[in-house]
Amino acid sequence: MNIQAMILTGSIIAIGTTLYGAPTTEISNETEKEYLQIVTLNYRNGENDREGILLDLYEYSVSDNKMKEIIELPVDPGYPVAYYDHKREKVFFSDDPYGYNYDNLYEYDFETDKIKQVTFGKNIFNDMFVVSDKMYLNVAPQYSTVMKPAIFDMDTYEITYLDAADNDTWYTSLSYNSLTDKLLTITNSDDEMRTNRVRSVTHIRPKSIISFSPEFKDFEELYHTEDYEIYLSRQFDENHILMTYDQSMMSLEPRKLKILDIKSKEVSDYDIPGIHEVYSFYPRNNGEGIYILGSNNEGDFDLYYYDIQNHSTQTVFQPGELPDSHRSIVDFIYYVE
I need a labelling partner for 205 at 20 to 30 A (CA). Which of 47, 71, 217, 245 fits? Predict the structure, then answer.
C-alpha cells in the first residue's frame, strides 16, 4: 500500500461515554522535559500529490509551548514513520524511493546534509521511538507475516528482534512509559484470527495487553479479552490503561476509548469532551492531560490537547504553523527525556 492510498480519510472514530478523573501519578524527575514529535505530509507542488509528497517532521516542546519544524523530506513509503534523535542530530525515517512496495530505514544527517539507507530488506515499519539511546520499532521484516518489536542500533544499524522466529504473534501499538519503565503492546495470534470462529462467527481477534521491560524481559499479561477489538493501548497511570476499541472487526459503530483498571480488570468507557473521533492518543506522564489525534465535534481532524482538570480541549498547532501545502497529520509520539 503506497502513501497515496494510506492517508487518513476522515472516517476515524468516535469516543465513549464515561469520564474518569485525572490520575494521581507525578513525574518523579523534575528535570525531565516533555516532547511531541509529529509526522505530517505536504503536497510537493502545494496542491495535490501528482508531483509527490513531502514528509514534514515537527517537534513540540510541552514545557515551552513551542513548535518547531525539524525537517522536510521527499518520501514515498508504504507507511511514513520518522524520529529526530537529538544526540546524533539525525532523523531516521521510512521510505520506498524506488517504488518496490516495501520500506527501509533511511538516515538524514544534519552535519553532512546527506541521506543514507541504513536497512536493507523488505520491511514495513510502524511505531518508532527511543528509550535510553536505543531505538524501538515495530517491524514486519522480510518473509514475516506479522509485526514484531525490535531494537535498532542507531550507530551500527543492527536490528535485534524480540523473537525473529515467531511468525504467528502480532504485536501492535508498541509504546513506552517512563513512570513504569515498561513497554506496552497488544498481541494476537495470526493462526487464531484466521480460524472459522473468528472469521465467520465472532469477527473478534482474541487479544492481550502485555507489558515488558526495555530489555525484552519480564513479560506480564495485564489483560485479555475476546469481547471486542482493541487497537491502541497506552499507560494512563500506574494502575490504568487507556485503549481504543471496536465491538468487532465488522462494526460500523464509531471507535471508542475504554479505560482498564489493571488490578481489578474492570473496564469502562472514557469520554473526552469536545472530541468526536480518535485516531491516536498519548496521556501525559503527570496525569494532567491527553494528546489526541482525531476529530472534534465539528469534524475538524487535528492534533488536540485535552486538559483533564479544566475539561477543556485545544489544538496543538496554532494558526499558520502548518503550511498551505499541508495534506495530513499522519501520527505522533509523546516522550520525556
Answer: 217
